[in-house]
Amino acid sequence: MTVANGIAVQAAGGATRDELQRVADMALRSRPPA
Asked: According to the lineage, what is the superkingdom (predicted)?
């Protein structure tokens, strides 16, 4: 939830799609395996 909110704030602030995608990719890589 924290990452999603952070992405929303960054998007509202004018971040590009590529920048937002990098944040999402980093967050997903840091998750522990299932």
From this structure: Bacteria
